[in-house]
Amino acid sequence: MSTELDLDIATLVGEMEAVPCDLPQHGNHPMHTEEPASHYVRSHCQACDDDTGTIAACPGFVAAVRANFYGYCRICRAQHRALDMVTILGPVKS
Ligand SMILES: [Zn+2]
Ligand SMILES: [Zn+2]
Predict the structure, then answer these.
(1) What distance in angstroms lies between residue 44's CA and the mean position of ligand 2's atoms?
(2) Are 13 and 29 spatial neighbours (Cβ–Cβ below 8 Å)?
(3) Which of 11, 31, 91, 93 is the residue whose CA sits 20 to 30 A from 55?
(4) Which ligand lies nearest to the CA atom of residue 39 in the structure?
(5) What share of the chain has pLDDT > 70, as a percent?
(6) Separation of 12 CA from ligand 1 center, angstroms?
(7) What pLDDT, on a 0 to 100 scale, did the predictor assign at position 17?
(8) Residue 13 alpha carbon to ligand 2 centre in Å
(9) Total number of domains in the chain
(10) pTM over 0.85, yes/no
């Protein structure tokens, strides 16, 4: 019998680093909350084909997406419903 299985899982995984919100409006827009990112999202503009790739977003932004607020493309400033533009990929912490 080995005692190595008793290793503390936390020492193997390490501390979870807080992931900051990647949205450029963070800190400038009241819908963003002063919290680490909670979800990964991806935003794609159907007007200019701008694609942010996978970015981290704070809970305030995720809540605004789920509420389907209007947002503006960062490149062409076209207005879209959030759910037409933003895909919530999944939580930061698995
Ligand atoms: Zn934010
Ligand atoms: Zn655009």
Answers:
(1) 8
(2) no
(3) 11
(4) 1
(5) 82
(6) 30
(7) 77
(8) 39
(9) 1
(10) no
Mean pLDDT value of segment 15-30: 88
**Ligand nearest the Cα atom of residue 59:** 1
Alpha carbon of 82 to ligand 2 centroid (Å): 13
DSSP alpha helix (H) spans, 14-70: 59-66
Cβ neighbourhood burial of 59 (10 Å; 0-12, 13-18, 19+): middle
- Is 7 among the domain residues? no
- Residue 3 in domain: no
Tell me the CA–centroid distance for residue 61 and ligand 1, in Å: 6
User: Does residue 56 lie in a domain region?
Assistant: yes
Residue 62 CA, ligand 2 centroid: distance in Å: 20
Q: What range defines the domain where residue 58 resides?
A: 18-91
The mean pLDDT value for 25-51 works out to: 96
Do 41 and 19 meet the contact criterion of CB atoms below 8 Å apart? no
* Alpha-carbon distances of 24 from 15, 27, 64, 73, rounded to whole Å: 27, 8, 15, 11
Identify the nearest ligand to the CA of 73 by its number. Answer: 2
Query: Does 52 fall in a domain?
Result: yes
